[in-house]
Amino acid sequence: MTPAIRWFHRSFSAFGLKFDQTHMNEMIVKRSVRPLFTAVFVLAVAGVTLGLWVIASGAGIRTQKLPLVIKQTLLTFSEVDLADDSLKQNVEQLVGMDSGNVRINLQRSFRWVGRYRLDTGSRSLNNGPMELDSQEFHKLQLIFRRNLQDWWRNRRFEPDVMSNMINVLEGPMIAGKSDSGRKYKTCAIVGNSGILLKTNFGDAIDEHEFIIRLNNARISGYERFVGSKTSLSFMNSNILHLCSRRGGCFCHTYGEQVPILMYISQPIHFLDYVVCSSSHKAPLMITDPKLDVLTARIVKYYSAKRFLMESGKPLEAWNSTHGGPEFHYSSGMQAIMFSLGVCDKVSIFGFGKSDSAKHHYHTNQKTELWLHDYQAEYDLYEDLVKNPKAIPFVSDKFKFPPVVIHR
């Protein structure tokens, strides 16, 4: 077996496509039975293998078009979320947890005062610390379970989820928007990359009708680079979790009137959401879990595609090199996916990296998080600009808005 055929064999056997050597030999030997089929099959295998072998040998990722059979394999591979089993188990445990487990989990989510006191500061319904045996906490626990169950029930793949995004995510409530169903004319998604410090995009960002910022990145002192206006604060639930631990649930870096939209990183964070949401003057919202599933599939597809082309290894090796169940899309990618459904035109700022720039413009962090594949996400952004039809899993009915990346 040649190296190319061996590579092809390893990659496809991981998905139940059993092109084993014995079977291939039998097909070749039995030419008298199906000469035409055998010839076509062998030529197809050779063509696919050769094409992939050229790609895997460094011919250039964005200049090569994947054969249809390989694309389908990548799609099948990307449909599997390795975190689903543990996530399901976590949700079931939280929904069915007794008071003892409640205390254990709350220790991970909130500050404690005394032995069994939950300090939510002014965010407690009675403006004081909350007793875990109180009626107030019992009510909170019921709300928590209901929200978690609803979220889990709706967490499924829906290719057309972005078509209804403006209504599903309460668009009329965002930034005082009164005309339901109308998308925002221009949107700026402001990333946190240190490359922003080499620009003067502040005024250009503030000219947009709708401006989304990520994970409470500080803007004070950086207005020349990142602007000063904010329409929506987009974050992962770890950020709200940290805010709630400080007491008071105050998580309004951009002002109390700026709505917050977050995706759930861990189911336990619904406790933070339940406690904090009633105290927020502006809406505290959660992304549609169907959008979460769609985003997860897309980023895995681009990551697996890049891995296959760069390494030439079988797809089954992707898991061990990308964190397996820990692999996840970034907050920036999720914010961009959201914007595609609510904006007529999308401008992307502060996405990308440079050897001479910090990872985040507002911190001293220099390294990237290992659970994200930023290069794969950049491939997606390039397709949004140049070839949105190449983006998988999105319904053919959805019309992508024009996207511009500012560097």
From TrEMBL:
Pfam families: Glyco_transf_29. Belongs to the glycosyltransferase 29 family. The keyword Chaperone does not apply. This is Sialyltransferase-like protein. Gene3D superfamilies: Glycosyl transferase family 29. One of its GO terms (cellular component) is Golgi membrane. The chain crosses the membrane at residues 36-56. It is found in: Golgi apparatus membrane. Keywords: Glycoprotein, Glycosyltransferase, Golgi apparatus, Membrane, Signal-anchor, Transferase, Transmembrane, Transmembrane helix. It comes from Mikania micrantha (bitter vine). It is a single-pass type II membrane protein. Its main location: Golgi. One of its GO terms (molecular function) is sialyltransferase activity.
